[in-house]
Amino acid sequence: MKIAVLGAGAYGTALGSVLAGKGYDVDYYDTRLEHERLSDVLEDAKTVVLSVPSEIATRLLPHLPKDRFLIVATKGFLTDEVFEEFRDWTVLSGAAFAADLRGGLEVKLTATDPRVMEMFQAENLRFDETSDRKGVLLCGALKNVYALWAGYCLLRPGTDVHEKYLKDTADEMRAILLANGADPMTVDLHCGVDDLRLTSGPGSRNYIYGQELAKNPKTKPETTVEGLTVLKRIRRGEINLPGNLPYLENLLRESEKWD
Predict the structure, then answer these.
(1) Using CA atoms, how far apart are residues 191 and 110, in angstroms rounded to an integer?
(2) What pTM was computed for the model?
(3) Residue 132 phi/psi, 5° resolution?
(4) CA–CA distance from 120 to each of 89, 109, 179, 203 (Å)?
């Protein structure tokens, strides 16, 4: 079976390598190569894996076939409304760096469809499952924002302050999920607390960029920092925000200096 992986960056190719190792015919769409036609990669593909930055993903969605099985591995969507036209779609998220996937290290993932678990089954992959697609999407987006703030505040993993931050921000994520019609308990899955912990540390692009912003609020990222993209969407009012979100409220105020 042919699978089209949209995104030929580190994470997309790492996911693709897992699938190729299972015997699937994997073809990649590299958004950096203008000469590569999307239709060629999609031709004869029964499954499409979306693994590009959310801004690019939003532009690609109108051009994707609506009758294929779509696996959303992009972590930056605050809503599931953009997938309403797709007949069969699911979300794959969780605590996974591309290097860990490639290196065979244990990776914890959340899937919203058992077919995904079957397709990606490997010795080093640990899955939990939920039907809460919106909640998994929100967790994947929000953890990047909180990782950015952890870096900006120069929090060091392993300290009591960092542990308290993870606990408190997980509570904020639960409140946000509830306010947006998702299951707050989804935060307790791999896509929530485990990914929040992984991303709020030195291996994370969002965390590292947060540290750079702490030194120079006007510094610009050299590559996509999904936490910034999501933060802009929150500031535009794309999700409902309940009261009593001190970390996110502080981040929103401070981020005005970064524009």
Answers:
(1) 6
(2) 0.95
(3) -85, 80
(4) 16, 10, 32, 23
- Under 8 Å between Cβ of 28 and 9: no
Question: What's the token pair of residue 1?
Answer: 């079976």
Q: Rounded CA gap, 223 and 53, in Å?
A: 10
What are the residues whose beta carbons fall under 8 Å from the beta carbon of 70, sequence distance 6 or more? Answer: 47, 48, 50, 64, 83, 86, 88, 89, 90
DSSP3 helix / strand / coil % (the chain, rounded to 5): 50, 15, 35
The one-letter code for the residue type at 100 is: D
Q: How many residues does the chain have?
A: 259
Same domain, 167 and 88: no
**H-run or E-run covering 160:** helix 160-179
Same domain assignment for residues 111 and 140: no
CATH number of 22's domain: 3.40.50.720
pLDDT at 130: 98
254 and 141 within one domain: yes
User: d(Cα 66, Cα 83) in Å, to the nearest integer?
Assistant: 9
Q: Examine the pLDDT at 259 and tell me if it is beyond 80.
A: no
Domain that holds residue 226: 134-258
State the DSSP string of 2-29: EEEEE--SHHHHHHHHHHHHTT-EEEEE
Q: Kindly state whether residues 167 and 62 are assigned to the same domain.
A: no
Closest to 27 in 3D by CA, of 52, 46, 11, 6: 6
Instruction: Round to whole Å and give the CA distance between 42 and 106.
Output: 31
Chain segment 200-254, per-residue pLDDT in tens: 999 999 999 999 999 999 999 988 899 999 999 999 999 999 999 999 999 999 9
The pair of structure tokens assigned to 196 is 């929040």
Number of structural domains the chain divides into: 2
